[in-house]
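Mods, move this if it's the wrong board.
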Amino acid sequence: MKKRAVLIVGHGSRLKGSQKSIEQLVNRLKDDRRFPIVYGAYLSYRLPSIPAAVDRCVREGADEILILPYFLSIGSHVKSDIPRLVSLAQKKYGQKTKIRLSPYLGYHEKIVAVVKERLEAAR
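Not the wrong board. C-alpha cells:
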C-alpha cells in the first residue's frame, strides 16, 4: 500500500499570520486521515519551501507526493514556477518517490457558495 503525502502550496507572505489559512486546511486534511503525511509549503517568504517540504515527505517514507497549488487564478507561479520545482524534485528522487502535481484550486462550482457567504458578510 502506498504511503501518500500531500503538500498544499501557497505563495507565502511577510505578513504575520498569512499562513494561517493553509495551516487550517492542512490540519483538516490531517484530521481526515486519508493521507498520512500532510504539510504546507511556500514559494517565498515562508518556510518550508517546496523542495524542503518534498525532502521532509520522503524522509517520512512517502512513496507518492501529491502537490496542490493553493491558488485561485493561473499565473506564472501556477503555470511555470511550481511545475519547474516539481520536475526538479522528481528528477532528484527518480523512481523512489512519485511526485504528482494536481490542478491548481481555481474555479469550482462549490466555491460559488463560499463567495456568496463572504459577500453576505461584507461590512
